[in-house]
Structure formats: structure tokens, C-alpha cells
Amino acid sequence: MNRIAIGSLIIGFVAVLVLLVLSLSARGDDLKDINWLAEDINSGGVIDNAQTTLMVNADGSVTGSGGCNRFMSNASIDGSKITFNPTVATRMMCAPALMDQEQKFFSALEQARSYAIDAPTGKLLLHDEAGKVVARLARQD
């Protein structure tokens, strides 16, 4: 009886470890291949119809729109840590407010050091080195 109980405990412990490893290794896939729409940049809100978007592809390449210009970058993801390379964007001119928002968004991406998906809302939160949310994005369907 004792051997059966100990064996069951060991099997249960191994199962928990396997699930933990699988959940940690899947980290990063929860934000990839999803079109994200910016809802807030550095607590300053966003222009509603600007459509500032972000797409992190499975290979780490990043594309999107700053609200005026299309951009590209690359992201490095390790667990909940994330860094973005500087963006390369087209050079169209837009209204000054859109251009300002776009620059703030590009800056927020460069400041990002970690991310989280808020469980209740499903929002993508990008945090700077101090843990401050620099951008909040929603899934765009």
C-alpha cells in the first residue's frame, strides 16, 4: 500500500512538472500571429480611427501600422521578456497628431522589456524596464 501511494505521488509530481515545462515553453506563442490594435500608449490614449497595429510573426518579425506609416521590426522573446529592434517605416506625412502618436508608439516598442496578456480582458500589455505599462493593445478580429 505504501509503495502504491509513493508511486502515485511520484507520477503526479512528474505530470505537474511536464505541464509546467510545456506551459513555459509555449510562452510567446500567446501573442504571435495575432493582429493587435493599440488602445493606449504611455497613458495618453490613442486617436480612435488611427489604427495603430502590431503583428508579431512566428519567426519574430514584426509588422504593423503606426497610424500613418507601415513599419517593420524584429522582436526577441524569452519567456515574458520581449525586446523590439528599432522600427523601419515608410515616410508618408500625416496630420501632426497622427505623426506624434506614431512616434510615441515606436518609442513604446523600443522601451518594452516584458509583456503580459491580461487574463480577464485578453489585452496585450507591454511593460518598460521599471514595469510601467507603455502600451496596451487589444486583439483585432
From TrEMBL:
Gene3D superfamilies the UniProt entry points to: 2.40.128.270
Domain DUF306: 30-137
Protein name: META domain-containing protein
Organism: Phyllobacterium brassicacearum
